[in-house]
């Protein structure tokens, strides 16, 4: 998907992120992606009982968010 002639960030539902500088390490998971009427890709993030809407460009900017590794189950 192109947005104003630029490629959209590679995001998928289920991707996980942490807010940069968050000392508590809360993990946010992408639950929805859509393009708003102004052509900007947005994501809905969920963490426990909280929900936030963040532009995809902000979500992939390391100044704001960093990818969170998928936790694996220990045996």
Give me a quick take on this structure:
By secondary structure, this protein is mostly beta strands. Helices cover 5% and strands 44% of the residues.
Structural summary, described in words:
By secondary structure, the chain is mainly beta. It has one domain (2-65). The chain has one helix spanning 56-59, and strands at 2-3, 6-7, 16-19, 27-35, 41-47, 50-55, 65-67. Strand 4 (27-35) and strand 5 (41-47) form a beta hairpin. The relative contact order is 0.26. The mean pLDDT is 86.
- Cα gyration radius (Å): 13 Å
Shape designation: globular
The side-by-side strand order for the widest beta sheet comes to: 6-5-4-3-7
Structural class: mainly beta
How many structural domains can be distinguished in the coordinates?
1
Topology:
Blueprint: E1 2-3, E2 6-7, E3 16-19, E4 27-35, E5 41-47, E6 50-55, H1 56-59, E7 65-67
Antiparallel strand pairs: 1-2, 3-4, 3-7, 4-5, 5-6
